[in-house]
Amino acid sequence: MQKFEKFSINIGGKLHFIERPWVMGILNVTPDSFYAGSRCQSDEASARRAEQMVAEGAEIIDVGGYSSRPGADDVTPEEEFRRLSQGIEAVRKAAGDEYPISIDTFRASVARQCIDKYGALIINDISGGTLDEQMFSTVAELKVPYILMHMRGTPSTMQSLTKYDNLLADIIADLAFKASTLTQMGVSDIIIDPGFGFSKDVEQNYELMAHLDEFHALGLPILVGISRKSMIYKPLGITPADALAGTIALNTAAIMAGAHIIRVHDVASAVQARDVATFITNAY
Euclidean distance between the first and final Cα of the chain, in Å? Predict the structure, then answer.
């Protein structure tokens, strides 16, 4: 069990204090995300979902316009920007201009377009800078927070790249090297994400969860995204639609290991799990 360590994030000159684990709601403006219940293709659907997640207690919303599901269709930068704009506008309408929003994109040009149009946002890059060589310099230039995730290859090839010399050591070393590079470039706000489900098999995902506390050695906030993922539904022989209970169990484990942000489809249940797990860690 890990005592929670407080952090702050500077978003456009405004400090947001993470004094307890944050619940990050997922707003997928896509037709093909792996969990069908998260897909919002119209302005009205995006607005309803954003309003619901804010009302249920999400401290931040992650807007995505490009599905990272293996086999998903490619999306042009123009279409990705259009989808992200739809989601950002829905969140801003529901919660105001200062509400924290992250944009789930690995494209530096798309990130720049969004920030030029909407102001400071957090960039959530599933590739950790490997799919766009301009990403790190763009983050540094725009002076925005960056979620640095571990992944190998691309969404199409990542599950063929699961061989490690030492799973934990290799992932921590990769994140440490990239975080150091970003810091030297002037990036002040970095959040790390071990990348559950990305270039890891089911057993490796559980090994990561069992040793999540070791990532605190990097001295950075930790984001965990395991909501309804295959590490839950595959070994249980169920579908993503039936994986809420398993998601709650893993979110609770992550919080008790000191995670700072949990990325979820189901905000209300995550808030309740977060609060109960926090009661336990506060008593530790």
Answer: 8
- Tokens for 156? 């199409």
Q: What angle do CA 192, 193, 194 make, to 5 degrees?
A: 120
Q: Which two tokens stand for residue 117?
A: 């149009």
What is the largest distance, in Å, between two alpha-carbon atoms of the chain?
49
pLDDT score for 35: 47
- What distance in Å separates the CA atoms of residue 68 and residue 107, rounded to the nearest whole number? 13
- How many angstroms separate the CA atoms of 3 and 1, rounded? 7
Residue closest to 8 by CA, chosen among 258, 224, 188, 223: 188
Q: Other C-beta atoms within 10 Å of 72: how many? A: 16
**Cα separations in angstroms, 34 against 6, 15, 30, 66:** 32, 34, 10, 11
**172/152 Cα distance (integer angstroms):** 13
| Radius of gyration, alpha carbons of the chain | 17
Q: Which of 1-5, 102-106, 110-114, 248-252 has the lowest mean pLDDT?
A: 1-5
Q: Cite the active site residues.
A: 229, 263
User: pTM here?
Assistant: 0.94
